[in-house]
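To: structure desk
From: M.T.
Subject: fold request, one chain
Message: Could you run this one when you get a chance? Sequence is below, nothing fancy, just the single chain.
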Amino acid sequence: MDSSEKRKNTIVSYFQKKSRSEPLSENNETLTAIPALEHVQEQDISSDNKNSRNLNIKNTENVCLNKFDIGLFNRFTTKQIDSEQIYQILTNTWYPEPSYQFIATGKRNLKFQYKWLDRWKWLAYSKSQNGVYCKYCISFSPEEVCSQKLGKFVLTKFDDWAHAIDKFNEHQKNKYHLTAISKVDGFLSVFNKKQNNIAVQLDNNLKLEIEQNKQILRPIIETIILCGSQGLALRGHRDSGHFQPDELYSAENDGNFRAFLRYRVSGGDLILKNHLQNCKKNAMYTSPEFQNEIIDTIYHIIINKLVCKINQSKCYTVLADETCDISGVEQFSLCVRYFDKETKTLREDFLKFVPVLDVSGKGLAK
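Reply: Done. Structure tokens follow.
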């Protein structure tokens, strides 16, 4: 009777799909709640870790990763990110709370100790991989230094908690780790603008030389501006050749520009005096070519400031007139009449001379 009841199934029932009514085990449910991660290797779920996985499976439920979890980076991805992201990795790496429950691993169920993070500042714990890395070496270590190849802490995680202290001390003595530390210090200093440009660091005398050149050029440029503002010609009949700053009065007229430079030297400008006495002949910054270069630069600065003022006014008038210079060359003078908002007055400023080939009305209109 019992055997007949057990065989009540018809032949059709063997082709019907049966649904599994039995509930999933607690471990299976927990495992499906853990998101798949690219960086979790197959060895992490090997048979050696099955016991520890079952004991502490609740700690990994609904894992929410920080984007700066060190386990999401490796030495090769850091080469492809910008300085801002590397700065965030160095200064904003995910840091567990003191109450965080670390996962036990191995047959002895050993865990990572929170106090290790305070003792070794270069350590960074990865929540995604339950291991630690050296954030300095990941960011800046070379391929190898003195035949010391990269391994744990850099290319792969470290999770041998039984020998953690010895391995930590051993790693921080590696030459590639010391090299990475020096690079990190320089990177953070430059990023935080505590140091000058790297070009200045390579040559400690470069910044001093730049400042000295500025101090040398300042009196020369001011002298050119003085001559221009007073309508004085810069050059004379003998304005080239060697320059003697000690002679207040030259035997030959070498122009107002050189005369004013001598006057500045006699007034106590030691920087200018030292420059004129000790500089190379091709680096005196007093040649006619250099004077013209400074005048041209000043011209463009003045024009740009005038154009900005004119554009700020609501309306302006262009004044044009034909004239000729002392050599008889026909020129077209351009002036602008506009309202200056700063001084609340009407101004008429000269802009430039334009050479004229055709003085007829049609030619001037062009």
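Reply (cont.): The CA atoms of residues 228 and 234 lie 8 Å apart. Let me know if you need anything else for the meeting.
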